[in-house]
Structure formats: structure tokens, C-alpha cells
Amino acid sequence: MSDTRLAIDPDPEKFRADLRGWLAEHLTGEFAEHLGIGSTDDAEGWDIRVRWEKVVAAAGLQGITWPEAWGGRGASAEHDMVLTTELARARAPYRAGVHGMELFGPTLAMFGTEEQKQRFLPRICAVEEFWGQGFSEPEAGSDLASLRTRARLEGDEWVLDGQKIWMTFGMYADWFYVLCRTDPEAKRHKGLSLIMVPRDQPGIDVRPIRNMAGAAEFCEVFFDGARTAKENVVGPVDEGWRVAMGALAVERGSVLMPVQLGYEREIQATLELARERRLPAGLRDRLVDSWIAVRLMRATTERTLGELAAGEQPGPQSTTAKLFQAVEHQKLLERATEAMADDVTATGPDYELDPVQRAYLLSRAETIYGGTAQVQRNIIAERLLGMPREPRPV
Length: 394
Prior knowledge:
- With 394 residues, the chain is an alpha+beta fold.
- The protein has helices at residues 12-26, 30-33, 46-58, 77-89, 98-111, 114-125, 240-254, 256-276, 281-309, 317-340, 355-363, 373-384; strands at 131-134, 150-154, 157-164, 175-181, 192-198, 204-209, 218-229, 233-234.
- The strands form 2 sheets. A 4-stranded mixed sheet has the order 1-4-5-8. Strands 2-3-7-6 form a 4-stranded antiparallel sheet, with no helix packed on it.
- A hairpin with a 2-residue loop joins strand 2 and strand 3 (157-164).
- The longest helix has 29 residues, at 281-309.
- The termini are far apart.
């Protein structure tokens, strides 16, 4: 395969045509045999996804909106939307480095020093380093401000002690970005810092967590005297809460489109099945509801991306999108499972799961990770509707 960079035509639609030709040429062999593999919360086919992402990087299609100094191409947000849409349309293996490319990278671009950007962003673009997000803890999930992992400064190094959990793809990470308490006297949101920590060192223990679908995309990480350089703080020391909220805002906006295109394929496949079988009228009506919901998800995301591309503050739909998507995707897969009936009541050889079974089981966590449905409803009630705040711990 050629490693020549694909030209990015100034006209997004001409770029789309060129990109489709590139995909037809490169999405072959083992990649064609694993179309649609993986997602933001599914590590299936990891090695294949890494190899595919390196092909994408060699074509100069990683971080195309980033400046060239960071390994990008300086393209427009519209070009990025074309790229995201076409990769999803072609069912290319889902990018392995999504957490560095779409979550940590933009966070570092917003809050990092120029030295940090020059050191880390080109390596993310080149698929040379992977990142894990160290936010949640066993007693600090949705209530992230109650975290207990600490970092103390010893000379020119930070020393970390504590535990992080539910770190997606953390077992593949070369670096972690960890929200720590750096001022033990400060309460809750105060005295926190976001610190970059190299994985390959004593004092770090990574333990995969297997979910009920048999996959192990999450892990827990124990820090016992782990060390990192003093300058590896993203943003000001003790102001990590603001930086972490910036990271979460990126997470809830940038990765939705390819996921939603996957939902479109799920509902289309289920509707085709419904046309072949005699399904109860009530179930058919509920499948139509899911079709409408998926279209609403995409329209909402396109609206938010359009506002961001125009340099505008996203509207209230950016706050409600995560809750709506999680709840409606669970309903979609419940209805798809009902439509398949006997086909999904048994597993295959060696207890292999049908894709719908697997998706259904994985979707159970969607109303938990990234902010539980209950927390999301509180945010909507208090911040958007102006309702009284729920009592908070002191």
C-alpha cells in the first residue's frame, strides 16, 4: 500500500469523492474482512484497528483539522465531518486511538503548553502513543469531585498514589491523563490537577475488567508511588477541575457522529428483518419510534458540530444529547432483540454472541458511563431549566 498522503481539496464535496476512491483502494484484505469492527466502548479486533489507523495516518487523515505543526493538515471542520461520515459509511474498523485523537488531544490543545503540544500531539496523530483517561474511581464516578487519588510534589517529580477504574482501553495505553488531588486541604472541586503519567514504570498496576459480553475494554489502574515530571501538568496546578470539564465537553460532542451512523445501520437492519417477518403491530410501531430517534440524534449532532464550526457556543441540545442517545439506543436494541426472537435466545459455538446480542449487552452500560442518566437529568433540570439545585455533599 502506498503511504502517500491524500490531497485535501478545498471543496469538501470533491474531498469526499477523493476519499471514497481512497477507501475503495485501501479498505481491502483483512480490513474488508472486519468491516464495522469495534467502537468507542468495544476493544474487539484491537490489533486490526491499530493497523488500519496507521494506514489512515500514513495518508495524512489523522487530525486533519489540527495545525501541521501538530501532525495535522489544517483542514476545516466541514472536511473533518466528511471524513468521519465516510469512514463510518464505509464501515472502516473503528479507530483504536480515539481517546488520544478525539478526547485528550483536543484537551491538550486547549489547555496545554506549547512544549506539551509539540511533544505529544504529533505522536497521537502518527498512532505512536495511546492514551487512557484516569477520571473515575470506585467511590468517585458520577460524583467525580470526591476523588481520592493524590499527587504530591517531590523535587522535580509528581508522585501518585490511588486507584482509577473504568478506564476504557487503558490496558493499551502508553500514557494516562489522571485527575488527582494536589491540594489535600482543599475541598471537592478545588485543589485538583490533571497530570500526564507514563505507564511504563514501577508503581503502576493495570488490571483488565471483563464485562458481561465477555469483552475486556475497561480496566482499573493502581498507582503506588508512580512518578511523572513536574512539567506534566495540563493547565495550572490545582485548576484541574476546569480542565477535566473541558475534556468531558469534548467527549460528549466529538465522538457521537460515527457512533450514531452505526445506530442507523442497526435500525435499518432491524427494519429489514421486520419486513420479512410477521411482527406484532405494537413492535413495528416501536421500531418506527427508534428510526425517528436515530434521525433526531444525527440532526442534533450535526447542529452542534455546525455551531462549533462557526465558532459559536453549542445550544442546549449539546447538553441533552448524551442522555437521549443512551436511553434511545437501549430501547432500539431491546426492540431489535424482540424482533429477532428465537434467533437471539441461544449463543453460537463456544458461546459466541450474535452481533445484536453483543450490542444489547454492551448497551446496558450506556446510561452509566460518561455521566449516569440520573446525573444527566439533574444537569438538564438545574442548568437548562433553572430548577432548584439538588442538595450536595458538604
